[in-house]
Amino acid sequence: MPSKPKTFYEMELERVYQKTSFRPEHYLQIRQSKAFMKKYHTERIELNDLAAVAFMSKFHYVRTFQRMYGLTPRHYLRDLRIAKAKTLLRQGISITQTCFDVGYESLPTFSTAFKKCTGLTPRAYQKRHQSNLE
Amino acid sequence: MIKISVTSIPVEDQEKALDFYTRVLGFIKKHEIPLGEHKWLTVVSPQEQSGVELLLEPMAFEPARLYQQSLKEAGIPWTSFAVDDLEGQYQRLCDLGVEFSIAPREAGSVKIAVLDNTCGNYIQLMQEL
Predict the structure, then answer these.
(1) Which segments constitute the VOC domain (chain B) (predicted)?
(2) Domain of B17?
(3) Which residues does chain A have within 8 Å of residue B102's beta carbon, measured at their own beta carbons?
(4) What ipTM score was computed for the predicted complex, to two decimals?
(5) Helix, strand, coil shares of chain A as percentages rounded to 5?
(6) How many whole angstroms separate alpha carbon A76 and alpha carbon A94?
(7) Quick one: closest CA in B to A15, which residue?
(8) For residue B105, what is the enclosing H or E element?
(9) How far apart are CA A119 and CA A99, in angstroms?
(10) Do B107 and A17 touch (CB under 8 A)?
(11) B48 and B5 in a common domain
(12) Co-location of B84 and B117 in the same domain
């Protein structure tokens, strides 16, 4: 059976990705570092660890990650941690416990990051969720 | 902080679109407010029910219809939805009779597929790799 003709969009996708400056192994290397962050985001992670997992220098790693995903590894890690924190806070876990459970070592740093990502402090987020449930 | 609260997709028939977006894609109806001959009709993801609402907007403006048709003819998706498991969703939707113009394929840092929403648009499903 003949396959369907490609749409203009599919042809454009192929054209654009043929021109991409990344080598296939770069995608795999960066994905390895993402998988590492997903697995260990509740622990202390240094940029050196991530660059080592990706087999790149720190500078090359940050630059490549940002160009591929549109944000720095640090922000990606922060978003992972805040997403997890939102889940824990909705479950009624205390703010201090949540802070440490998602890999932050300081409550003020956690609160600042949380507010930046959600627009609410952890306490306000938890309160709002509890009142929604009631 | 400014947030995205509603985004829209033009549809030919709001009832048909609601059926596709809820029964087939798995969204949940959030608002259905009568407005003249149409409705303010939105759906949300079950995972983010207080998140961004998708407005199933009636196609009632001729220049927009031309734009929609031109995108469809070129195979260009109107918008994209994120999925965790693209291959799984592809199989599930194929089993429900959904037609795809692009089967799952890698495109840089993502894997994509493009489906026909039966309401005049293509929709891209995207899994970040």
Answers:
(1) 3-128
(2) 1-60
(3) 7, 9-10, 13
(4) 0.81
(5) 70, 0, 30
(6) 24
(7) B107
(8) strand B100-107
(9) 17
(10) yes
(11) yes
(12) yes
Q: What three-state secondary structure class fits B103?
A: strand
Mutate to test the interface with B, among A3, A6, A10 (most CBs of B within 10 A): A10
pLDDT tens digits for range B86-113 = 999 999 999 999 999 999 999 888 999 9
- CATH number, domain at B3? 3.10.180.10
Domain assignment present for B89: yes
pLDDT digits (tens, 9 = 90+) for A60-114: 999 999 999 999 999 999 999 999 999 999 999 999 999 999 999 999 999 999 9
| Chain A residue at shortest CA distance from B99 | A4
Model confidence, pTM: 0.81
Q: For residue B66, is it within any domain?
A: no
Which of A7, A20, A27 minimises the CB distance to B75?
A: A7
From the list A9, A31, A132, which residue is nearest B74 (CB)?
A9
Q: Give the separation between CA B77 and CA A13, rounded to whole angstroms.
A: 12
Rounded to whole angstroms, how far apart are CA atoms B62 and B60? 7
Pair B1, B53 in one domain: yes
